[in-house]
Amino acid sequence: MDRESARQRLSELRREIAEHDHRYYVLARPTISDAEYDRLYDELLDLERRFPDLVTPDSPSQRVGGAPIEGFRHVRHAVPMLSLEKARTAHELQLFDARVRRALEGEEVAYHVEPKIDGVSISLIYRDGSLQLAATRGDGEVGDDITANARTIRSIPLRLRVERPPALLEVRGEAYMDRAGFAELNRKLREAGEEPFPNARNATAGSLKLLDPRLVAQRPLRAVFYAVVRCEGLEFATHAEALAWLRSAGLATPAFTAVCGSIAEVLDRCRELRERETELPYDIDGAVVKLNRLEHWRRLGLKPKHPAWAIAYKPRDWVEQARTRLVDITVQVGRSGVLTPVAELEPVFLDGSTVSRATLHNADEIERKDIRIGDVVVVEKAGMVIPAVVEPLPEFRTGAERRFRMPDRCPVCGGPVVRGRLSSGEGEEVAWRCDNLDCPAQKARRLEYFCRRAGLDIEGIGGIVADRLIERGLVDDPLDLYELRAEELARLNLGTEEEPRVFGEKNAARVLSALERSRRAPLERWLSALGIPEVGDVTARELAVRHRTLADVAESPWLRAIVRRNALLEERRRLRSRAAPAPDTADREHRGRRVAEITAEIARLERQIGAGGRSPVGPVQAAAVLNFFASPRGRMILQRLAALKIEPQGGAASEESTAAGGPLAGQTYVLTGTLNSMSREQAAQRIRELGGTVTDSVSRRTTALIVGQDPGEAKTRRAAELGVPTMDEAAFLRLISNAGDSPPPPRPAQPELF
Fold it and tell me: Which of 458, 500, 707, 737 could form a cystine bridge with 451, CB 3.0-4.6 A?
């Protein structure tokens, strides 16, 4: 066969094999025998061996996987993979329906019901019809690039089966193993003397994490897709329409779906799904209820952690539970010294694995549920993953059960245990804390927090490794990592003296490489990693925007102004309080002068703070940051970083210089409700880019309240009381369009599910 004939025949074979793969793995309706399929596949391999330059990336032969990889690279999701709000009862589902109908103001509402598949969440990106990227969910913002492994899954088309594919398509779905494939995999593992997987979800997750795609190709993995996230060149009116198009493009979609006109019909379809659960090829752990019209998705938008247009319905009878005895309650110590009680259980098999420990959250929760040591308790896996004690069963009590009391000494270091006051000053914290900063448990958890993905992303320093580094004296503080030698890290014993298990040279090299990369991490990541009290990821970002270096943060006039302004406001309130009337004229005059002085100083500080004094960093947070860097530990961190020649850099100059040059300089806006054209975070970012300030509450200094769909009642009422102007989304878009070159980029046409 000459080259041109081979090219044509290879093209025919690829189309034919892809069609048979689709019929077998997606439709479950094969039209040829295995022997006929093997003949076509062997012919393809033979031609590609003879004409290797004619091999294409979307050839079926490329599914077998290439050489092993060193590790997965991280990819940031263009659209975050969010989780779903959950409804446990029909009443909670009805409340969701009521919120939706209130937000949509009497419009006709239709829901789409589909199974909540118990697999591993994945995201695929196709460009011009060809598979470009596959990623895991990760933490929702950043996942692992598993493209090489996903290419081995035959139910995932390497090329979309449509004549004119969109320029960009991103879809979300679940990787899974069907019941027959999972049983066969475990049979082979037992025959090979290996440990079988406890359930199909664990087997799927473990398979996707394999670094050798050739091994992944041998696992019975499949995939099903339930959402279009981004699509350039195509628009869908409904979710059902989007799923139908995915099916036509060769992607498997949920086997059970229904469009319902009422929440009563939704409940009927959920009951039907429960009855037909065993007919499905995958395990499920509930139903997903979504609004069917995608315009409604855009209008309802997103909550901080969940989409507002979908909910997972997981009634108690759909969640596997087990009974066992609570043998004891032990206490764990976290990085900030918080003591967390943990239930020690008689081992019980639950949802595919043996459970012997479960979270109890805090002492108040134990008292509220009246959980006692020795109780028979009901346990389940929260989110199908984390074991939790649901309730005790008092009818099984014998009288020998004991109430739990939080220890007055730390179980790890023996230091004193205290219960702090709430930052508001009203009442005590729920948490009890160990006050000893040198507690080994706190050190290990601080080290783990420092290395987490949202911190400095030092892969390989997890729980047991952090514990052993502290125990063996190799690390006392997270910054000690930068002075570790490869050989001592490689020799780290993660086991016992009797059964040693060393960390290894490859793992050590990987950690040291990550540490070297982290030296160049931006200021925001360092502020997140250091574990500064009251500073989360959002506050770290706000601090990094306004400061260039850690030293600038430590001596920040901006933070000092926030703290000082708060103290002066408190003093002025006391002086003006009617509860403390001035006894004589002289004292009244003195108070009046002092109030005038304070008011003048507050005005000066507010000019320094910017945004009329409404800072995204509050006085409690500002004081915590300043106190941290003024403490011996904070000073030590600055000195160590200087010695290590690590100089994290912030992203912008001060608030004054950022705001001074923009067309919205000196203006303050508050956002409420959901915007259709962008998220509230994008809107706030655009205002800041144009020199304006965004605050959380309405005051007399607010320039305008920007009102989206389903606005907050408190903000709109406050704006009306103070006479603050409001503007709808159209007016806001005109404002930022006129103030800048162009409005911010809109959200994707099809918002994410999770």
Answer: 458
Do 625 and 683 belong to one domain? no
Burial class (CB in 10 A: 0-12, 13-18, 19+), 296: buried
Cβ-count burial of 656 within 10 angstroms (0-12 exposed, 13-18 middle, 19+ buried)? middle
In the chain, the amino acid numbered 540 is A
- SS3 (DSSP) at 164: coil
The CATH number of residue 171's host domain is 3.30.470.30
**The model scores a pTM over 0.90:** no
Examine residue 423 and state whether it is found in any structural domain, yes or no: no
Residue 422 inside a domain? The answer is: no
The answer to whether residues 339 and 467 belong to one domain is no
* CA–CA distances in Å: residue 68 to residues 65, 72, 110, 175, 222: 9, 11, 47, 21, 21
What's the CATH code of the domain at 472?
A: 1.10.150.20
Q: Are residues 331 and 304 in the same domain?
A: no
As a whole number of angstroms, the distance between CA 301 and CA 680 comes to 10
Residue where the block lists tokens 């002289």: 586
Q: Which residue has the tokens 């020199």?
A: 691
Identify which of 124, 295, 150 has the alpha carbon closest to the alpha carbon of residue 225: 124
Kindly indicate the confidence band of residue 346, based on its pLDDT and cuts at 50, 70 and 90.
very high
If we measure between CA atoms, which residue out of 221, 197, 241, 227 comes closest to residue 281? 221
Same-domain status, 539 and 555:
yes
pLDDT value, residue 676: 65
**CATH for 326:** 2.40.50.140
Q: How far apart are CA 753 and CA 567, in angstroms?
A: 45
Q: Quick check: is 463 in a domain?
A: yes
Does the annotation count 645 as an active-site position? no
Are residues 281 and 227 located together in one domain of the fold? yes
pLDDT tens string 633-687 = 899 999 999 999 999 998 643 333 344 457 887 788 888 887 766 767 678 778 8
Name the residue type at position 379: V
Cα separation of 444 and 461, whole Å? 10
> Which of these three, 20, 37, 64, is where a domain ends?
64
| pLDDT confidence band for 749 (50 / 70 / 90) | very low
Domain count, the chain: 6
Gap between the Cα atoms of 688 and 666, Å rounded: 11
- Whether 257 contacts 244, CB under 8 Å: no
Please give the residue range of the domain that contains residue 12. 3-64
584 burial type by CB count under 10 A (0-12 exposed, 13-18 middle, 19+ buried):
exposed
**Which range among 264-268, 346-350, 414-418, 700-704 has the greatest average pLDDT?**
264-268
Helices (H) and strands (E) in the chain, counts: 26, 24
**Same domain (yes/no): 307, 388:** no
pLDDT of amino acid 651? 66
Q: Out of 116, 381, 443, 715, which one is annotated catalytic?
A: 116
Task: Examine the domain organization and report whether 158 and 301 are in the same domain.
Answer: yes
**Angstrom distance (rounded) from CA 473 to CA 221:** 43
- CATH number of the domain enclosing 22: 1.10.287.610
Report the C-alpha gap between 535 and 515 in whole angstroms: 23
From 175-179, 647-651, 741-745, the region with the lowest mean pLDDT: 741-745
Helices 34-50 and 3-21, interaxial angle, to 10°?
150
Where is the domain boundary, 656, 679, 711? 656
- Residue 751 lies inside a defined structural domain of this protein: no
Query: Residue 753 half-sphere exposure, CB side, CA atoms within 13 Å?
Result: 25
